[in-house]
Design goal:
Layout (H helix, E strand, L loop, with lengths): L4 E5 H15 L5 E6 L6 H9 L3 E4 L2 H9 L7 E3 L6 H10 L3 E4 L2 H14 L3 E8 L21 E2 L3 H10 L3 E7 L10 H18 L7 E3 L19 H11 L7 E6 L1 H4 L3 E12 L4 E5 L8 H5 L5 E3 L15 E7 L8 E9 L6 E4 L21 E4 L2
Helix pairs in contact: 1-8, 4-5, 7-8
């Protein structure tokens, strides 16, 4: 078989979606949207759409892909700090459910375009709660120095403008504090902040029909086989127990990585074993063009030798192992998937699985060095 390619276990995706919906259904307020930026493969989007989720989009192209995959427009939310006029117009004409607005000027532009089209734009103001989610600096989004959202001290001016601006209907507030969050504390802190904000505005006679708490739930990169599905019950219980309920209010979630990451692996073949003076390299045919997270974030992905059925090869105490730096063919020193990882003794032609690549894998792939973007293979679809 030609390598590299992305291998998706669609049965695991179905089980994950069932777990998400089962946990979310414990509270009638909850509405779940899939963050399209995590994986925008057509087959993945169609499967998630059939499960009944909405879509969280961060570009006009993602909106088009979501609509094409069957997501109802009214269940689409549109976020991002740099929405272009064309994207705003596209979203308005599609009649999406909500714009998550991140600045005063963006609010004004959306209002103007909506008025010109003779429609009203539903918006939620994205609030920066200044909560440290303790994740990598590139994927934290809720601190005051981040480019995202409206700082708390600036929120009153934005609310005042939104409730009086032509072409705008203020539907709620939006929050997102970061990604790959594996502890409950940041989410609990978020609930406390939202409760405090809502109480302040309730005293002014202002209520919000929708509260969007974003996403951010992490996965177990170290043990993807042992924990293939995140603990959605624990995640949703935080918001069910800590977020104060108001009559008729809906609570929206934007989950991406936690839904699709574990169903995908990048399959790559060993090209050469290179014996250095102090290092042994397994040079593979996949590179940072196919999975950029290790090079960009120094992110960890478990690497395993694959058997003929594209499952992790059996390893026991009698299996002879060696330490390798697993590197790709790209002409960059950062093109390294893992350093000093112990694997069964490898030879030219062996297959490796780079796990947890269903999120931010193929969707972030590039054609640097004029390499083609690998295909996706969908098992159990």
């Amino acid at each position: 078989m030609d390598t590299p390619f992305y291998y998706y276990d669609m049965r695991l995706l179905d089980r994950t979606l069932a777990a998400v919906m089962s946990a979310a259904l414990t509270d009638s307020r909850f509405r779940v949207h899939y963050a399209v930026k995590a994986n925008a493969d057509k087959e993945i989007l169609e499967t998630i759409s059939r499960a009944g989720l909405g879509a969280d989009c961060v570009s006009g192209w993602e909106i088009e892909a979501a609509v094409s995959a069957g997501f109802p427009a009214e269940k689409i939310v549109f976020a991002g700090v740099g929405k272009t006029d064309r994207e705003i117009e596209l979203a308005l004409k599609a009649r999406i459910g909500c714009f998550n607005v991140e600045s005063m000027q963006e609010l004004e532009v959306i209002g103007t375009i909506a008025s010109d089209l003779g429609v009203t734009a539903p918006v939620a103001l994205r609030v920066n709660p200044n909560i440290d989610a303790h994740t990598h600096e590139y994927i934290t989004t809720g601190l005051s120095e981040n480019k995202f959202g409206i700082n708390l001290d600036q929120l009153p001016a934005h609310v005042k403008a939104a409730v009086s601006m032509p072409g705008i209907s203020l539907e709620g507030l939006h929050f997102h504090i970061g990604s790959q969050i594996t502890e409950s504390e940041p989410f609990e802190m978020l609930c406390e902040t939202i409760n405090r904000i809502q109480e302040e505005y309730l005293s002014l006679g202002i209520t919000f029909r929708n509260i969007n708490v974003g996403g951010g739930l992490g996965i177990d990169y170290a043990d993807p086989s042992g924990h293939p599905i995140p603990d959605f019950d624990r995640y949703f219980s935080v918001f069910r127990n800590k977020l104060k309920a108001y009559p008729g209010q809906k609570v929206h979630f934007e989950l991406g990585r936690s839904i699709v990451a574990q169903c995908g692996s990048l399959i790559t073949r060993v090209l050469y074993i290179k014996e250095g003076t102090v290092k042994r390299f397994a040079i593979v045919d996949a590179g940072m063009t196919d999975l950029i997270r290790p090079a960009l974030y120094n992110a960890y992905h478990k690497i395993e030798k694959a058997d003929a059925d594209l499952k992790p090869a059996h390893v026991d105490s009698d299996t002879l192992t060696q330490s390798y730096d697993v590197v790709g063919p790209i002409c960059e020193s950062s093109d390294c998937f893992a350093r000093d990882v112990r694997l069964p003794v490898l030879k030219r032609g062996d297959l490796l699985m780079i796990r947890s690549a269903g999120a931010y894998g193929r969707v972030m792939a590039s054609q640097y060095n004029l390499r083609p973007i690998p295909r996706g293979v969908y098992c159990g679809n």
